[in-house]
Amino acid sequence: MSVPPPFQGFDGLLSLSRREGVDIRPTLLRVLTDLYVQTPAHTADEEQQFTELAIRLLDEVDDATRAMVRAKLAIYPKTPRDIRRKLLIPPPPLYPREVAPSLVPAQAETVVAEAEAQTTDTPPLAPSQPQGPALLSMKPQDASSLIEMFTGASAKERAGILESLADAPLKPSVKIDAKRATRAIALLEGAAMVADAPAFTTELADALILPGSVAKAIVSDPLGEPLACAMKVLGMSAEAFQRVLLFLNPAIGASVIDVYRLARMYDVLSERVALIMIAAWRGSSIANARAKYQPVLYDGERQRARPTPHTQPLHIATDDGLRKERV
Questions:
Q1: Which pLDDT tens digit goes with each residue over 188-240?
Q2: Do 29 and 68 contact (CB within 8 A), yes or no?
Q3: Among 202, 201, 235, 234, which Cα is nearest to 218's?
Q4: C-alpha closest to that of 50 among 172, 171, 169, 131
Q5: What's phi and psi for 316, nearest 5 deg?
Q6: Strands, DSSP E only, in the chain?
Q7: Cα-based torsion angle of the residue sequence 185, 230, 220, 216 in order, rounded to the nearest 10 degrees
Q8: How far apart are the C-alpha atoms of 205 and 226, rounded to whole Å?
Q9: What is the pTM for the complete model shown?
Q10: Quick one: the chain helix, strand, coil %, rounded to 5?
Q11: pLDDT exceeds 90 at position 264
């Protein structure tokens, strides 16, 4: 049985962008490069998959994106050899600069002999266990781009995005505590049965540690996939999720096709993909907050500071009619 490549999830996003006519290949290449250089070492499968995707995208992006990617990979010591050749990046030095000073042949032979002696005296190490691909954390800007693309996609495209995330090497969010999730499920189902969307939103934001605006967007989404991801993270049963769909949002509950579609998707949706989406929602809220509260003027912070009162001189009248000033 063949093992899927660790970066297979990005192929699905690329195919979606081509069908819709929206060229996200420059963004996809920058995100892929940022994720690759965050890890100091990669397996052979990761390196091969990154090389194939990057070389394919490098032929289809603009010069500015190529220059940005080249600048990032030029300072990364483990850039694949084929990408270095394509971007004309010189190979890294064989030795660090502080170690590279000249070794005369006699010294080199001594170093080799000592290394061989240490290798002979050292007992053989136990065979290492096979490790999976390294998981990479999303930056707030990347998370915001993912959520923006997911929100603007159709139901069919959202299903493709969620399927692609199953193989993407992205770090999911931490699981919710089991006791907290059980209490949240009971409260959420009770609020949904009486169609109390505000109470449902408040409890969802508290249980998943999300801003209120993000929780409101998840609850009020007209297609329902964000709500399915949120309920999957909490571990809600399929039957309870169907009841939530029927009573919480009238736009979804009134459509038998939508309820059936979301119920089927909920059955195949994995907890890991749902946790990745929660991590993306949290990261996008950080990016939006940074953009919202950035000062517009270069001296905006100084103008908002309270001015210090100036000391006024005190005039004192004396008996001889002269006036002395005291500060």
A1: 999 999 999 999 999 999 999 999 999 999 999 999 999 999 999 999 999 99
A2: no
A3: 201
A4: 169
A5: -120, 125
A6: 314-317, 323-326
A7: 80
A8: 13
A9: 0.52
A10: 60, 5, 35
A11: yes
The identity of residue 68, as a single letter, is: M
C-alpha distances out from residue 16 to 50, 59, 153, 235, 311, Å: 19, 19, 9, 29, 68
The residue written with tokens 């920058």 in the block is: 30
- Which residue in 263, 216, 269 sits closest to 244, CA to CA? 263
Give 62-106 as a DSSP string. Answer: -HHHHHHHHHHHHT-TT--HHHHHHHTPPPPPSS-TTT-S---HH
In the chain, the amino acid numbered 59 is D
Look up tokens 């169907």; give the residue: 242
Residue recorded with tokens 């899927």: 4
Spatial contact of 278 and 208, defined as CB atoms under 8 Å apart: yes
For residues 260 and 153, the answer to whether their CB atoms sit within 8 Å is no
- Residues in a beta bridge with 42: none
Task: Pull the structure tokens for residue 189.
Answer: 């189902």
